[in-house]
Design goal:
This protein has three domains: 86 residues, no CATH class; 146 residues, NAD(P)-binding Rossmann-like Domain (Rossmann fold, 3-Layer(aba) Sandwich), CATH 3.40.50; 148 residues, FAD/NAD(P)-binding domain (3-Layer(bba) Sandwich). Helix content is 32%, strand content 17%. The protein contains 14 helices and 15 strands. The longest helix is centred in the middle third of the chain and has 13 residues. It is globular.
C-alpha cells in the first residue's frame, strides 16, 4: 500500500493503525519523503507535529516531471537543491523582524530562528496562516491547512516571538530596531476595471466567498477563469451535493439508481457560470491539477464562457463582449475571482530607515505558495 497519496498522509500513527488493523503488512512512503526526508526519524522520536506535510498538490513533483524538469517541493525549499541550499548556524545572531504570517513569513521566521537568530513575527490578524486558509477551502484542498499546523509547531520549537493582531507601523520598527526585516505582506483581491464591480451589493470577492461562505442566490457568475475563479466556482457548485456518508446509505439501501446517485454527488443547488477573457481557462495551474479541476468542473455542469470580456455589472446583469457582440446574462450574485495584487503598505516605506530588508512572496509579485516559501528560504540563507 502506498502511503504517498492518502489524506492525512503525514501522520505516522495512521501508518501504524493500518498495520495494526491488518489492512496491510507494510506501508511505504512516497512523496512524503520529498516533503520531509526526516519523516521516519521524527516518527521514531514522537515528533509527529514537526513533520513537514506533503499537501498532495503535485506542483513540485508530478508537474515538474511532466514538464521534463527535476523534482522539487512547494513546501520543502531544500528538496532538489540539497547541495546549493544550506542555512548554517550563525555565530552572529541578528534581531530579525518578519512582517506577515502567511506561508512566506512563516517559513522565513522558522528558518531564521532555527539558524540561531532572534526572530519576531508580526501578523495583523488573530491567527497565522494568511492565504493558506483561503487556498485550503475549495474541495480537495484541505491538506494545505496542514502546513499551518506544521509551521505552528516549528515556531514553538525554535521560540519565535509571535505577535498576533499587530499591524506593523514605522513607529514599531523604530522602537524595535531590528537588524534585518523580511516583509511578507501578501496580497489582496484585484479589482478589474469593470463598471459596477465596486459597490454593487450583488458583487462578492472570491476571497470573501472562501473565507466567510456568505449566503448567495442560486444563479452565480464568477469573473475570472484562473485558479482562483475556478476553484471558487467549484466551491460554490458543490453546495447541495450529498456527502460520502449519505451516498453510502442511499447506495447500500438501493434508494436511488447509480446514475441518480452520480448526479446527486456532482450537481448541487447552485448554477455557476465562469467568464474568462482568454481562449482557455486555468492557464496558471500545473498540468495535473488543471486536469483534475477541469474534470470536476465538467462533472458539476459549471458553464465556462471564454473569449468573453465583461464590460459592466448592474443589478445582477453581466454585460460582456464576445465575438464582436454585446451580450447580457442575469445572475443573483457575481463573484470577483480575477486574481490578486501585491500589498506593500510597509515595504514601500522601508528604504529611508537604513535597515537592510527584503520583500518576498505575494508582496513582491502575486504567485504560487512555492514562490513564497522558496523566496523566504533564500532570503534567510542570503541574510
Amino acid at each position: 500500500m502506498s502511503h504517498g497519496f492518502l489524506s492525512l498522509q503525514w501522520k505516522p500513527h495512521l501508518a501504524e493503525q493500518i498495520i495494526r488493523d491488518g489492512m496491510a503488512d507494510m506501508v511505504s512512503l512516497g512523496r512524503v519523503l520529498i516533503a520531509d526526508p526526516y519523516w521516519p526519524k521524527k516518527a521514531m522520536e514522537l515528533r509527529e507535529d514537526e513533520i513537514r506535510p506533503c499537501v498532495a498538490c503535485s506542483q513540485g513533483c508530478s508537474d515538474e516531471l511532466f514538464s521534463g524538469r527535476p523534482v522539487m517541493c512547494i513546501a520543502n525549499a531544500e528538496a532538489g537543491f540539497e547541495d546549493e541550499r544550506v542555512i548554517p548556524w550563525t555565530d552572529n545572531p541578528k534581531n530579525v523582524m518578519v512582517i506577515g504570517a502567511g506561508p512566506g513569513g512563516l517559513e522565513a521566521a522558522y528558518r531564521a530562528a532555527k539558524a540561531g537568530h532572534n526572530v519576531t513575527l508580526y501578523e495583523k490578524k488573530d491567527t497565522i496562516g494568511g492565504q493558506l486558509w483561503i487556498a485550503g477551502t475549495p474541495p480537495n484542498k484541505q491538506e494545505l491547512w496542514e502546513l499551518i499546523r506544521y509551521y505552528e509547531a516549528m515556531l514553538n520549537r525554535y521560540n519565535v516571538d509571535v505577535r498576533l493582531e499587530t499591524e506593523v507601523s514605522l513607529e514599531i520598527i523604530k522602537n524595535e530596531k531590528p537588524d534585518f526585516i523580511i516583509a511578507a505582506e501578501g496580497a489582496e483581491p484585484l479589482i478589474p476595471p469593470i463598471e459596477g464591480i465596486s459597490g454593487s451589493p450583488e458583487v462578492i470577492s472570491a476571497w470573501t466567498v472562501l473565507e466567510e461562505d456568505p449566503p448567495m442566490g442560486k444563479n452565480i457568475a464568477v469573473i475570472g477563469g484562473g485558479s482562483v475563479g475556478l476553484e471558487t466556482a467549484e466551491f460554490i457548485a458543490e453546495k447541495g451535493t450529498i456527502d460520502a456518508e449519505t451516498l453510502y446509505f442511499l447506495f447500500k439501501n438501493n434508494a436511488e439508481s447509480v446514475e441518480r446517485l452520480r448526479e446527486l454527488v456532482h450537481h448541487g443547488s447552485k448554477r455557476v457560470t465562469v467568464f474568462e477573457m482568454r481562449t482557455k481557462v486555468a492557464m496558471d495551474m500545473g498540468k495535473s491539477n488543471r486536469w483534475v479541476l477541469l474534470g470536476n468542473i465538467d462533472k458539476m455542469n459549471i458553464d465556462i464562457v471564454t473569449d468573453a470580456k465583461v464590460i459592466s455589472i448592474a443589478g445582477g446583469v453581466v454585460k460582456y463582449e464576445k465575438g464582436g457582440e454585446i451580450l447580457e446574462m442575469q445572475f443573483d450574485n457575481v463573484v470577483n475571482g480575477a486574481g490578486s495584487k501585491s500589498v506593500n503598505k510597509i515595504s514601500s516605506l522601508l528604504d529611508g530607515l537604513g535597515i537592510p530588508y527584503t520583500v518576498i512572496g505575494d508582496g513582491l509579485k502575486p504567485g504560487r505558495i512555492d514562490n513564497a516559501i522558496h523566496q523566504a528560504y533564500l532570503a534567510v540563507m542570503n541574510m
